[in-house]
Amino acid sequence: MTKSISRRDALQRFTAAGAGALLATPLIAQETSLRVTGRAVELALTPISTQTIRLTIAPLENGKAQPVPMDGSLTLSNSLKPTTRLTTLARERSVRCGSLKVTLLPEPLTIRIAASDGRLVQELRVDQQTGALSFLTGENPILGFGEGGPQFDRRGETYTNRNGQGGYRLRTHGGRVPIQWLI
Length: 183
Fold this sequence. Notes:
Helix content: 10-25%
Number of helices: 2
Shape: elongated
Radius of gyration: 23 Å
Order of helices and strands: HEEEEEEEEEEH
Oligomer: single chain
């Protein structure tokens, strides 16, 4: 013979089961650490101005982000503090950085930057196996990545961020000086 369950007991059990299911999901999701080339990393967003963000993906050692080497290619940023620091990303997350909205997606690690009117400004994608960074190029020539050189449209090229001031045809082509800005 089966014992009947009161309506109150049934509601309590359903409520407890539902709460357990809702609370278990974030706990499981928190274990997903950000990894690039097999190493745990920290993703930090620092507003430089209302329209400019510094994105840093730094390896973690003993739970701390390693500092960016100061080789002169970036300005010192001791006074600038990140508004967002993440070592885990289980699901999509959106944050404000200056007047921009940054949406972070975990798989593959994707950073979408939108203007205040919702227009997509840029989308960066990190290949978590190789560490390669890809970005939207649009229909226009890819200029920049340093000054000078015979080929100004850098579309489809790999740029190694090597200082080229002492390089090939400096007198006629100029030097290629790394400038770490993506516009």
